[in-house]
Specification:
The complex is a heterodimer. By secondary structure, chain A is of the alpha/beta class. Chain A has eleven helices and 14 strands. Chain B is mainly alpha-helical. Chain B has twelve helices and no strands. The chains are: A alpha/beta, B mainly alpha. Chains A and B meet through helix 2 and helix 3 of A and helix 1 and helix 5 of B.
Chain lengths: 315, 239
């Protein structure tokens, strides 16, 4: 559906997107994840034909975003980050206008507006002027506009920013549903969100792709190097001495409270020390009340890879 | 073509929803009424619209049209709607021509209100309708040029005030100053500046003549500014 090869974008001397390549298959939700200023919006603007790239190619449905821009624009629904709308228009008027700009016939607009009004819950305010709407309502109007012509590809730039918790949950469910029929690319700096709704994730930092995979894969990759936490009742120096002898252990840290010693053990990747720790406690007769692998989240992974990227590329 | 129509209709509709437009219309009607009243009903004045069309309308349009037009693109740049507009399957020239036609249609409505004055004059004497027609053609062409110029400056900045001021400056230069400036030069320079003087071209319409030379002047300068606006919008993509 989307194919990006060696894409580069410069703004003067600033390198916003640095030679990135990726492909998106039809269907499903792709999450573009990265800290602010990582190049997410720039990449999205190139895909939606707003900005031309400085180098490399990008195609949507086989059409080049620069040379066959009109073909791409007809197939893409785009919601920019700030959800720009014309405040003086009424919602229905605005959707009519956008439908006409896309060359939709009267019938297509009628059915299209009915469909998006239902999907984006516009019913209660479809005849109100946009200027009177709350941020969340405007966001839904923007989303409705992007979906109006039933595009193959939906590009949403930070679609849940500025919404209240209920609206965020509703919008996320909506996007998840949309992934069944359309291909959706969304950008976010909220990890939790990406973890929840995306089938595939691209983590981008300083204009470069630092990791790709499903949220599950990324989490697994990180948790292989995770730490194991054990809470035992024993002498601190004994614990430290004994655990350090276990094969593969790299680091041990202890903290004691009420006679229980909380022991965090980090080991080499692919090395699970839980069994060794249990044996140790059993052999020495320590009381063991907790033994678990520290659940690594995507957030830990994200912070780790983006921090690496920043230390690798000091300017 | 239908895309241009859609753009133009939206812009025309937006005028009737904007409080600023109504304020500008009020100023326009007041100024035109004042000029008509003072000029035509002064002691010993001739019962004609010459006074109004010859000078006052030019001055009024010079201030009113930039205020009405510069909103068209500046607002889109400021609010970010330019992004949704330019990612819709619409070309830059369709956007520019659509917006121009929207503003132009609104201008024609403003011009129509002036038809009240010949009706008043009918009470006092005969109105020369052939002359009136020529005057109107002159005003239509003049307004088109002013709108195209203001539209260009509108595409240059997201601050409407800056666009208005720049339009004032250039329109004053083109309309009133170039004739005076021409006197400072000799040879080709003088000829060019004289050719560029909008007021010189406009005056023949006031005298009741429709000269192709002047019509071509207005149409090409208007087209030139529209072309610049399209180029400016295309540049916008690269920033």
């Amino acid at each position: 559906m989307v194919r990006v090869e060696n894409l580069t974008k410069r703004y003067g001397s600033l390198l916003a997107v640095d030679n990135i390549s990726f492909a998106v298959e039809r269907g499903g939700v792709l999450g573009f994840l990265g800290p602010n200023g990582a190049g997410k919006t720039t990449t999205i603007r190139i895909l939606s034909c707003y900005h031309p790239a400085s180098g490399g190619t990008a195609t949507v449905g086989g059409f080049d975003v620069f040379r066959q821009s009109m073909e791409v624009r007809r197939r893409v629904g785009y919601l920019p980050e700030s959800t720009p709308l014309y405040p003086e228009m009424r919602v229905r008027e605005y959707l009519q206008f956008r439908g006409k700009l896309r060359g939709m016939s009267r019938e297509e607009r009628m059915t299209g507006i009915r469909r998006v009004a239902e999907r984006c819950w516009l019913g209660s305010f479809i005849d109100r002027p946009i200027v009177q709407l709350s941020k969340g309502m405007k966001q839904r109007v923007g989303l409705a506009d992007a979906m109006l012509h039933d595009p193959d590809l939906l590009i949403l730039d930070e679609p849940t920013i500025g919404l209240d918790p209920t609206q965020i949950r509703e919008t996320r469910n909506l996007i998840k549903d949309l992934g069944d029929r359309h291909t959706v690319i969304l950008s976010s700096h909220i990890l939790h969100e990406v973890e929840q709704i995306c089938d595939h994730t691209i983590i981008i930092a300083s204009g470069k792709i630092v990791a790709t995979g499903s949220p599950q894969e990324l989490r697994n990759r990180f948790s292989e190097q995770g730490t194991v936490v054990a809470e035992v009742k024993a002498d601190q120096t004994d614990i430290e001495e004994a655990t350090r002898k276990i094969a593969g252990v790299q680091n041990v840290s202890l903290s004691a409270s009420n006679g229980w010693v909380r022991t965090s053990v980090s080991a080499e990747s692919g090395c699970d020390v839980r069994e060794d720790l249990f044996k140790l406690a059993k052999d020495r007769g320590w009381a063991l009340r907790e033994l678990r692998r520290e659940g690594a989240t995507l957030e830990d992974f994200f912070i780790k890879v983006t921090a690496e990227q920043q230390t690798v590329r000091p300017r | 073509m239908s895309t241009i129509c859609t753009m133009a209709r939206r812009e025309l509709g937006a005028y009737f929803l904007s409080p600023i437009a109504y304020a500008v219309i009020a100023i326009y009607l007041f100024a035109a009424g004042l000029a008509f009243g003072l000029g035509t009903f002064a002691n010993n004045a001739e019962a004609s619209l010459r006074y109004l069309f010859e000078f006052w309308m030019v001055l009024i349009l010079l201030f009113v049209l930039p205020m009405l037009t510069t909103r068209l693109i500046s607002d889109e740049l400021r609010s970010g709607t330019i992004e949704t507009l330019m990612t819709a399957p619409v070309s830059e020239s369709q956007i520019v021509i659509g917006k121009f036609l929207g503003a132009f249609a609104f201008y024609l409505i403003l011009l129509a209100t002036l038809l009240l004055y010949p009706i008043i004059l009918e009470i006092y004497g005969d109105v020369d309708y052939k002359l009136l027609f020529c005057n109107y053609i002159g005003l239509v062409l003049l307004g088109g040029l002013y709108i195209a110029t203001s539209l260009f400056f509108s595409a240059c900045t997201k601050h409407q005030v800056i666009a208005v001021l720049a339009s004032f400056l250039i329109l004053i230069l083109m309309t009133f100053a170039s004739q005076g400036l021409a006197q400072q030069f000799e040879g080709a320079g003088r000829a060019i500046l004289q050719q560029l003087s909008v007021r010189t071209h406009y005056m023949d319409f006031i005298r009741g003549m429709i000269d192709t030379n002047h019509v071509v002047f207005f149409l090409t300068t208007t087209g030139f500014f529209l072309f610049l606006t399209v180029k400016r919008l295309e540049m916008q993509r690269w920033q």
